[in-house]
Each structure stands twice: as C-alpha cells, then as structure tokens.
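Deviation from plan, reported transparently: 1,3-dihydroxyacetonephosphate complex.
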Amino acid sequence: MSRRKIAAGNWKLNLSFEEAMQLAKSIADEEIPEGVEVVLAAPFPYLKSLRDLTMSIDKLHIAAQNCSEHAKGAYTGEVSVAMLDSIQITHVLVGHSERREYFEDTSEVLSKKLERAFENGLVPIYCCGEPLAIRKDGTHVAFVKKQLEETIFKLERENFSKLILAYEPIWAIGTGETASPEQAQEMHAAIRSVIADKYDTALAESIPILYGGSVKPANAKEIFSQSDVDGGLVGGASLKAESFSEIIKSF
Ligand code: 13P
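Because the crystal trials were delayed, the predicted structure below was used instead.
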C-alpha cells in the first residue's frame, strides 16, 4: 500500500528568528517531490510568521515542538493547543525523548497532550524509541510496545488513524550513530504489527511511521527505501537548507 511520505525537520532549541525565516524560505522555494509532505517543527515564537510565510504551500506544514497538557488556565509560561490552532498550526510533536527525559513528559502527561491535540484538530507526531541499555539488552521491541500501550493505544480508532508516528532510538539522536536500515525496518515492522493486533491491519498499514536519529543526506535514501519507513524526523541536518533539501529529495 502506498502511504504518505514525510520529511520532518525538528529545529529544537536552535536558530534566531532571522535564520529560521531564511531557512523556511529556502525550503519553501524548493520543489517538493510528488507525494511528499514536509513538516518544520519550530520554536513557539516563530510559528505564526512561519505559518504566514508558507500558507500557500499545501505540502509544507508548520508544527509546534510541544504543547501544554492543560486546555487553559493558570499555567504560567505554557502554550495550549487551542492557541496553536488559533494561529492555524496543524501539527504538534508529542513524546519526543528529550521532553520525556528532561521535562517529565510521562505517559500520563503525554496522553493528556494527545487528548488536547485531538480536541483542537491538530495532528500529533507521536515519538517513541528506546535508550541504549534497552537496545543492548535486546528488549527494544517490548520497550517501544509499552510506550505505545501507555499512550496512543488508549485512543479510539478514529483519532489513531490521524496520527503520524516517529521511531527515534535515543542512542541515535544527535550522536552521529544511525540505526542501520535493517534495525529501522525491524522496529517499524514490529510497530505496525502491534498496531494490527490492537486495532486492525488496514489501520496499521495506513499510518506513516518516520525514522529519527542522525538522518543525513548520506543515509536518508537507504533508510527511506525500507518498506515500513515512510520518511524521517530530522534534527541536526534540518538546520541547513542544503542538507534538508537533499533529504526531502531522498524518497
Ligand atoms: P538528530 O537528527 O540531530 O539526530 O535528531 C533527531 C531528532 O531528535 C529529531 O526529533
């Protein structure tokens, strides 16, 4: 079955406003291949300007990197999904390992964030992935399955069908060490299989699953060519127009 192909850049805590706008302009000026969607996950203060800049390009989406688990109220410093929706932001990262590790995004918190996203019609890009010790143990599939069971497997089928998933092994994030195409394929196929067990095969076959962890122009083609890999969630290599453009063209 042919699934949507997605190249997503996660800028994390990088770039000045000027740099971000320049980078988005360069990406917007490039031809996006047929059947491919591009997502830019940017810092909160830049979202509205980026959205305005790219509004006319259907295949280019702007995402928030996080959102509050609360709908509204006395939560100083937080940004709600309704606020994102009010500036026409359509996607939000949920469950990135850096949020899980440094900001106490537990499964309980992530479930609430997913709920907020769906209430407001945003598409969550849900991230999962194991640390190095778990990979070494050989229990990585069970570990990721548990992450899914505690969060997205609580969703009704209809909401689940709107998700984008990203498998990001923590040991491959920002380390220059990439999962081999076979390691990525093994996990993506395993994720699809547990989705089929929990829901059904049609749903499992329809969900885009992106790989993240040191994706760069030199390895993107081989990783994206795996049958269960539908694209990438790219950190470092998404900060330069040339390298991210090359990745977009790697499908
Ligand atoms: P790197 O591509 O820098 O390894 O980061 C991956 C990532 O965390 C994307 O969300």
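The chain has a mean pLDDT of 97. We consider this an acceptable substitute for the interim report.
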